[in-house]
Every structure is written in C-alpha cells, then in structure tokens.
Amino acid sequence: MWLVEARTVFGRARVRALLVVLAAVPVFLVVAVYLSGGPASGNGPAFVDRVSHNAVFAALAALTVAMPFFIPLSVAVVSGDAIAGEANLGTLRYLLVQPAGRARLLLAKAIVLAMFCIVAAIDIAIVGLVAGIVFFPHGAVVTLSGTTISFLDGAGRSLIAALVVGASMFGLASIGLFVSTVSDVPIAVMAVTVGLVIVSGILDSISEVSFLHPWLFTNYWTAFYDLARAPVYWHNIWKDLVLQVGYVAVFGAAAWARMTSRDVLA
To answer: Is position 265 within any domain?
Structure first.
C-alpha cells in the first residue's frame, strides 16, 4: 500500500516542483559564492565561508541554508496533503472503502512522508556536492577540528548529514500529519505546521525559557554540523534523533487516535 502511496505522492506535480526548488537552493548558493568570493572567514551562515575551499562544504552549506525555511515548508506542504488533502478532494472516503483500514492507511501516509523528508535532504546534498565539484576544488577536506580527511570521506559525511537533516524533520512531519487528521483544509494544516516551526524557533532563541529548549523539535536541527569534525561528535546528533522519535511517538499516536475515531464525510 505504501508503494502505491509513494508513487502517488512523488508523481504529483507540486511535489516534483518542491524537489526542483530545493535542488535550486545549492545551485544558487554555489553560483553566488563563485561570483562574489563568499563571505569572509567566520561570517555568514555556517560553512558558507568554506564553500570556495572545498566542494564538500557546498553540500553542508546548502543544508544549512535550506534547514530553517525551505525544507520545513516543503514538509508542511506534503504533510498538509496527507489526510486533509484527500478529505478536501473528496477521495478519503473512497480510500477507506478499500479493505486497508484506517490505521494501515495512516501508516502508509507516515512512511511516505518520512521518505519525502529524507529525499528532500538528499536532493539538496547531492546537487550541492555536484555543483561544488563543478565550481570549486574537491581534494582533501580540512574539517572544523583542523584535521584533514579524504574527499570521499567528506562526501560520505555530507550524505550522512543529509540523512540526519531528513530525520530531523520527522518530528515536524508527525505534527503535520496529526494536524492533517484534524482539519479538512490543507492550507490550514500547512499554515499551522509552519507556524509551529516559527514559534519553536523563537522560543529556542529566548534564554529565559532555556528549560524548554531540549524539548523543542527545532533545538538540535543544526546537530549535523558535528559531522564536519574529526572525530565526529555524535552526542547532539543522537539527542536530535531521540527527540524526533519522541515527537513521532506522541503525535503519531495522536494522529492514530484521531484518524480511527473521526467521522469521514468526504
């Protein structure tokens, strides 16, 4: 069932358009750095000042630039369509007529949504890496720790960083999926999901509520930076992944409870 859902979701024009827009982010970033020389060392978003030094940093910088807005917005769009989009089009009732069951349908939607999170991040990383190779050197990589690793090692780490970034979206995706079971209006679900990203980001920057920071789903979104160190500092990455699992468990359960008890009228 999830394979059918995957073909449906990734076959939609708007989803393909989202992936194209995400792929354009690293291209524009690399071209801008190539034409301008990039910011001075230590200035600008993380890794952007290193893009001209090695192609690996083009992928990492693209993930950094896309993380606060582009990727969450894309996840909000896809999660908003998951259940609310079907209800809005009047197809949800027909899907449930099939002997699949509500829980199985929700699970299929969740799996494909998780797939989109990973694909979106890998899309950015691969295009960033290729664009970086075209415009900049791609030899040995000097890590943030000052040590040197091979280009293949650095490229592998950039792809692992993409997987971490994709997994970092699981909490947001589960929230969007839950909200999608509550509303029949996809735009409203997207707005609420994006709004929660903004609220979480604001709270994450206010020191007076620091006790909340470890519980905010955006708190460890930059943990993938530590993959650019040698040795890799895994502590915050694991914290991020565990936090996302917690959000998936809570909002996945809430989505299941809502989905299995709601009246489906469309």
So the answer is: no
